[in-house]
């Protein structure tokens, strides 16, 4: 007897003559109950404008369309055009935008529910955080989900953890085993819920703070003092760096991975007030040391 909760994703691909593109990080959920839980976690209602990234075969898109005021889906792979067109003919509240979600300008949205392409889940999460919204329920790799939720000093604590803690409240919802996907990925997935909040502390510049975090976490196992003094290699005067350190003295001997989000905020102001905008200096450091060639590192 067939399990009614299992979606025959393989059969859908065969019917439409499509093969999943692993190079694009395409892994499709086969569990209808899990898809329904995603919609419930976001508490979708008829007043919501929902954004979905990577609708693919539309198995989540249809559930969203049944509950939301409107659904805007961004899809890069044109091979899904026929499937999604059939879905649009059935539901008049679906709009599909074809393009790369990393390049496409996001429309206004209240909520996001997305099974993110694993390959670009990290840079997509950073992009999502640049927007105002109520809640986002995201499926990504379990390791990335745990990084989103990690606390200072714990495994996985990273620049992503800091940015999420500054701009949102986050919940780890559940692990999604790899056998719930077709084709199965190499790692388990997980669901997280991000509730957007006003920034919990101010920084002198969003771009500057982003690059500061990248710089500091490229030296995550060094002390703050060691990490800051590494900027001497870019030509920043030692005396100026020592002045920055004097402003943030109480955390000098902590490891970078132990610093709390708000302490990174204070550090940003110390740099800014002593040395001004070092955004390009940080970037030259990355280039010199071969760091962060790709945003998903």
Task: Summarize the topology.
Blueprint: H1 9-16, E1 28-29, H2 32-42, E2 49-53, H3 59-67, E3 70-75, H4 81-90, E4 94-98, E5 111-115, H5 121-129, E6 135-141, H6 142-149, H7 159-167, E7 168-176, E8 181-182, E9 189-196, H8 206-217, H9 224-229, H10 238-247, H11 261-275, H12 279-289
Parallel strand pairs: 2-3, 2-5, 3-4, 5-6
Antiparallel strand pairs: 1-8, 6-9, 7-9
Helix pairs in contact: 2-3, 8-12, 10-11
Provide structural commentary.
This protein has 297 residues and is an alpha/beta fold. The chain folds into two domains: 9-196, Vaccinia Virus protein VP39 (Rossmann fold, 3-Layer(aba) Sandwich), CATH 3.40.50; 206-289, Helicase, Ruva Protein, domain 3 (Orthogonal Bundle). The protein is built from twelve helices and nine strands. The chain has a seven-stranded mixed β-sheet with strand order 4-3-2-5-6-9-7, sandwiched between helices. Strands 1-8 form a two-stranded antiparallel sheet. Helix 8 runs parallel beside helix 12 and helix 10 packs across helix 11. It is elongated and about 65 Å long.
Q: What CATH architecture label of the largest domain applies?
A: 3-Layer(aba) Sandwich
Shape: elongated
Low-confidence stretches: 293-297
Strand order across the largest sheet: 4-3-2-5-6-9-7
- Class by helix and strand content? alpha/beta
Count of folded domains: 2
Element string (H = helix, E = strand): HEHEHEHEEHEHHEEEHHHHH
> CATH superfamily assignment of the largest domain?
Vaccinia Virus protein VP39
Estimated share of beta-strand residues: 15-25%
Query: What would the average pLDDT be, to the nearest integer?
Result: 93
What fraction, in percent, of the residue positions are helical?
Answer: 25-40%
Using the coordinates above, name the CATH class of the largest domain: Alpha Beta
Rg: 21 Å
Largest sheet: 7 strands, mixed
The end-to-end distance, rounded to whole angstroms, is 45 Å
Count of β-strands: 9
> What fold name stands as the CATH topology of the largest domain?
Rossmann fold
